Amino acid sequence: MTHAPRCTLIVEHSAESRTAMARLLSQVLPELPVCEASTRAQAEKLIRTRTVELALIDFGLPDGSGLDVLRTLHLAQPQARAVVVTMFDDDAHLFPALQAGAFGYVLKDRPEIELVAQLRRIQEGEPPLSSTVARRMLQHFAAIRGQATAPGAQASGDVKWGRRVTDVGGAPPADTQDLARYLSPQSHARPGMVEEPEVVLTDRETEVLQRVGKGYTLPEIAQQLGLSRHTVADYVKQIYRKLDISSRAEAALEAARRGLVR
User: Fold this and answer.
1) Nearest 5°: phi and psi at 34?
2) Spatial distance between the Cα atoms of 118 and 74, rounded to a whole number of angstroms
3) Which of 13, 188, 192, 243 is the most buried (most CB within 10 A)?
4) 251 lies in which domain range?
């Protein structure tokens, strides 16, 4: 696979949507050819024969689901970045996509200039995640967190969190309602295991993490804090390194876990 021709990949049944996605990719990675697939079978053939740098994948395919393609790509080419581009922002689509290895999740109905900006974040080490999707994730996990801390519930230790779904040992739960508990480190703790101490962030890093958790973009955060966009991007990279995370979605969840977003 390392010697296979490189390309970007579009997996989308609608020809009109494929054209729109190709236009996005021509602005983000103009040096790479675009490979298109309208079916799961076509997509999996391309994954076997091409080195995929970036894939834009929708769910609805005539012979399967985009989730199947996500799983295949993640297993065959774990270095590839797959971004779901869809109209669906509900839990039933969002969380299974993250479980299947999606690196980002953006909505089709956003302006093209916004989608291009989101995809370019990948080259800056910031996976794309639509702000409305980030807010939905915060609401979802905040609700679960509230259930977990209700009277009679077992108190959770203040330990480090920072794993992608695919990094956690064992099979992820099929029920999205169980995903937050599955991701928590205490759910995988063993008797006698020493808990890792809380990762300490500086005041500025905490301010940046809070705003990432609220769904603000890097330019918006820079304006709010009176910093340059480059400086904010450096803070985000430092936060990701410290917390051992790799996506805006994980950063949003960590911000919620730390009580920065309510």
Assistant:
1) -100, 125
2) 21
3) 243
4) 203-257
Q: Are 122 and 207 within one domain?
A: no
Distance separating the N- and C-terminal Cα atoms of the chain? 45
Name the domain count of the chain.
2
Q: Given the structure tokens 């979802």, which residue do they identify?
A: 140
Residue written as tokens 């169980």? Answer: 178
Residues 160-219: pLDDT tens digits?
Answer: 323 334 443 444 444 433 444 444 444 444 444 444 567 888 999 999 998 888 878 888
In a shared domain, residues 113 and 15? yes
pLDDT tens by residue, 31-48: 999 999 999 999 999 999
Answer yes or no: is 12 within a domain. yes
The CATH number of the domain holding residue 94 is 3.40.50.2300
Helix-, strand-, coil-residue percentages of the chain, each rounded to 5: 50, 10, 35
Dihedral angle, C-alpha 34, 37, 43, 46, nearest 10 °: -40
Q: How far apart are CA 96 and CA 106, in angstroms?
A: 14
Please tell me the pTM assigned to this model.
0.57
User: Is residue 25 in a domain?
Assistant: yes
| Phi, psi values for residue 35, rounded to 5° | -100, 135
Distance separating alpha carbons of residues 245 and 44, to the nearest angstrom: 28
The answer to the question of residue 72 being in a domain is yes
Q: Look over the chain and give the mean of its residue pLDDT values, rounded to a whole number.
A: 78
